[in-house]
Design goal:
With 239 residues, the chain is of the alpha+beta class. It has 6 helices and 14 strands. Bound molecules: uridine-5'-diphosphate (UDP).
Length: 239
């Protein structure tokens, strides 16, 4: 399958049409942004790692019965995916308090949550992706009640699969962001699963102030060793 015209360029990926109207090709870049684009940089080799890692995760999830957009990896940076209509919600699952959750509710980072939580942000750069609840999402016609129920069910199933997968690799899955799309009226997991979109902490370090992040927090928080952290995660998953 070959790239035709570019349809879209996002912060970390470009999307191209293909000869098949049901498929597009995503091409992963090394560009990194944080704080809604306010911080910009390059993480050398990130595009290759995120492409391959995301595909491995999607393939693993498919085996567990979770429908995804993944079709076929073409090269180091390019992958064929189903052309979905993205539901404009960022779906965030958390197992341990960190980042904006810690700030918003005054909970120390690294506090294990009593149950895994879910929250939605409305995908809208101009508004800075504001937090939104189910009723608001319905009121704004962002998704139907059935779709929201399906998204929640799938997101928690993804959490269970990923927690188990990373536990074996001595990594604690703190939180992550998913996006879902509609493909022929069915909800499928889309976007990516990578250190850009997940918090991965070296196992057993989540209950201390001195956890070791193996994810984009190293870039966001200027912790150094950004490329090494991406490479380490990739190595552990068998990449
Ligand atoms: N996240 C993401 N994209 C976003 C916002 C968050 O991939 O635009 C991921 C982030 O990597 C983390 C989780 O979602 O794994 C929760 O992020 P949080 O809400 O704590 O936001 P942050 O602290 O990153 O601003």
């Amino acid at each position: 399958m070959e790239k035709k015209e570019q349809l879209y360029e996002g912060k970390a990926k470009k999307v191209y049409a293909t000869e098949n109207p049901d498929y597009v090709i995503v091409s992963y870049k090394d560009d990194a942004t944080a704080f809604n684009g306010a911080k910009r940089g390059t993480i050398v080799g990130k595009g290759v790692i995120n492409n391959k890692m995301s595909n491995m995760m999607m393939a693993m999830l498919e085996k567990k019965g979770i429908p995804t957009h993944f079709v076929e990896q073409l090269s180091d940076r390019d992958t064929v995916v189903k052309k979905v209509q993205i539901v404009p919600l960022e779906v965030i699952i958390r197992n341990v308090a960190a980042g904006s959750f810690s700030k918003r509710y005054g909970v120390k980072e690294g506090t294990k949550l009593a149950i895994p939580t879910i929250e939605f942000s409305y995908k809208c750069d101009a508004l800075d992706d504001p937090l939104i609840n189910d009723y608001h999402a319905l009121a704004l016609n962002l998704a139907s009640e059935e779709e929201i129920a399906e998204i929640k069910r799938l997101a928690f199933a993804v959490n269970e699969a990923l927690i188990a997968f990373f536990k074996e690799l001595n990594i604690d899955l703190i939180d992550f962001k998913l996006e879902f799309g509609r493909f022929h009226d069915k909800i499928v997991l889309a976007d990516e699963i990578s250190p850009d979109t997940c918090r991965f902490w070296e196992a057993g370090t989540w209950d201390t102030e001195h956890h070791t992040s193996l994810d984009k927090d190293r870039f966001r928080r200027d912790l150094g060793g950004v490329e090494d952290a991406y490479a380490e995660i990739f190595k552990r998953i068998g990449g």
